[in-house]
Design goal:
Order of helices and strands: EEEHEEHEHHHEHEHEEHEHEEHEH
Strand content: 25-35%
Structural class: alpha/beta
Strand order of the largest sheet: 6-7-8-3-9-10
Number of helices: 11
Radius of gyration: 24 Å
Largest sheet: 6 strands, mixed
Length: 306
């Protein structure tokens, strides 16, 4: 029996005035999955999230959360959803625990001990009785996730969770997401820090101009039939011309004095032979590992070759 996705977006469209903001977007998020939703500014990311959370009505399409249709059974659909949007805000004169108590009061079926559970889960138990006005940004981010967990959600939306954090805070946030996802909580993350998305997410979707460009597992998307090599030489322009008609070269570009070449996998030896035959001295060739950042730029902005 196929498991019901925790989030199922089906052919969602939205238009503001005469502008198509979303065009038949479909995606799914499974239980315990960490899903990255990426796109340039103005691509439609925020609009889709607002539609999923019931804040904006779509022009077409359907959304299901845990099998419940958002449009027809909103209360049941949203009951197991949490969200941290932008930098979390709290009453600064109240302690972390008191701020969480205010949220728990909105959910009468949530037991009192749940507050202590989420404080422990997010590593905030030792700061529970400190006023939030004295919290660092990293502490506020973690308490924000604790607040999102009060209603025992199966799906949590995180908007730029690493934004403004120092390196230690980023490591702690990464570990927290990993720990919570292993408990079966699914995360829907938007972020401009693509290196961090690559560290924490299993699956991504890229949206541009309201259209879904692609969606899939990161490791599968980055497993291409090409490899990238950086060529360090005193004559990068000459090397570029020498590769004009090389059948194994897919794309080449100059970057900060070096030549970067995308070629058919396993062709780096042929590349070196061609450069030697063209009498171009090469200091060294460096294989470059495909990164999510490069992949995103190619898909969303379309890098042009030299």
């Amino acid at each position: 029996m196929t498991a019901i996705p925790v989030l199922d977006v089906r052919q969602v469209s939205k238009k503001f005035w005469n502008k198509k903001v979303l065009q038949q977007i479909s995606l799914q998020v499974s239980r315990g999955e960490v899903f990255g939703f990426l796109g340039p500014n103005g691509a439609g990311k925020t609009t889709l999230i607002r539609i999923i959370l019931g804040l904006v009505r779509p022009d077409g399409g359907e959304i299901y959360i845990n099998g419940y249709q958002v449009r027809g059974a909103f209360t049941r659909a949203i009951a197991r959803v949490g969200a941290v949007v932008e930098t979390p805000r709290f009453f600064p004169y109240l302690t972390g625990r008191q701020n969480l108590q205010l949220v728990r009061n909105l959910h009468p079926d949530v037991p009192e001990e749940r507050i202590d559970e989420v404080l422990a889960l997010t590593g905030m138990a030792e700061h529970a009785h400190t006023k939030t006005g004295a919290y660092s940004l990293g502490m506020k981010q973690r308490l924000g996730i604790a607040r999102a967990l009060v209603n025992d959600p199966e799906l949590v939306f995180l908007d730029e969770p690493m934004n403004g954090l120092d390196p230690q805070g980023i490591i702690e946030m990464r570990a927290l997401i990993d720990r919570l996802s292993s408990r079966g909580i699914a995360f829907f993350i938007t972020s401009h820090l693509l290196h961090e998305v690559e560290q924490v997410c299993e699956t991504i979707a890229i949206i541009k101009n309201g259209r879904l460009l692609l969606a899939g597992k990161i490791d599968e998307l980055l497993a291409r039939d090409t490899e990238t090599v950086e060529i360090y030489t005193e004559h990068p322009d000459k090397a570029c011309l020498a590769l004009d008609n090389a059948p194994f070269v897919r794309k080449r570009r100059l970057e900060a004095g070096k030549l970067v070449v995308d070629l058919e996998r396993g062709s780096s030896m042929d590349l070196n032979r061609m450069l030697v035959a063209s009498n171009i001295p090469v200091r060294y060739l460096v294989p470059r590992k495909s990164s999510l950042e490069e992949f995103f730029l190619e898909q969303a902005y379309g890098e042009e070759s030299v």
